[in-house]
Amino acid sequence: MFSSSQSKKSDDILLKCEGISHSFEYPLFCDVNLSLDKKESIAVLGISGSGKSSLLHILSTLLKPNSGKVYIDSQDIYDLKDDELLRLRREDIGIIFQAHYLFNGFSAYENIELSSILTNKKIDINLLKLFGIENILNKKVTELSGGQQQRVSIARILTKQPKIVFADEPTGNLDRQNARNVIEAIFDYIYDKDAALFLVTHDEDLAKKCDKIYRLKEANLIREK
To answer: What's the CA gap between 129 and 135, in Å, rounded?
Structure first.
C-alpha cells in the first residue's frame, strides 16, 4: 500500500512551513507554503539546481531560510533552544541523504545499533530482512557494495523511529528490485508508525506513489497532485 486517502485533523499535522523563501547566487524559491500530516507523503520534483535539496534541508532544520517559518509537531523550530533542537533532530527527524554517512570502521550491525542506543529503540529484525541485509550485518561498511551501504543507512534511520522521514533520492544507488523493497519499507513504516515522508526525487514514477506532488520551477513550488 502506497497512498493514504484518510481524512486528516488539524492535530495530525507534523510539518508546516509558511512563506519560505531562499536564495544563493540566485533565487531558489519564494513564498513556499505546505503542510505534511501523519501517514502522508509529499514528493518534490524539479531539475538539478532548482532547490529541491535546499528545501529539504530547510524543512529538516539543517538550513535556515532567508525568510519564513517552519513548524514541526506545532513547534516553531527557530524558537527552540540548542538542546531542544538537538533532541528533535536525534529522535523525531530521519534524513536519508544520497550519501550513506555510515561509520566505515564499524560493521553494518554496529551502525544500526548506534542508532538504537542513542534513541533507546529496539532493532527490528523484520526490518533488516525486508531490506535484505540480515546476512551482511557482520561485514564492515567498506566491505559492502554501494547499494548495500544505502540499505544499511536507511535501516539505521528507520530504527530510531522518526516522526518525519526526509529522503533525498533514496533509491539512487539501488537496482530496481531493491529500490522497490526500500520504498515499500519506507511507506509501510510511515503508515505503521503514524509518521510522514517528505521525498525529493527525479523519478516521476516514484513521485506518483506519494499523496501530494509538487514541482519546483522558476523559483515557484507548484502543486501537481
So the answer is: 9
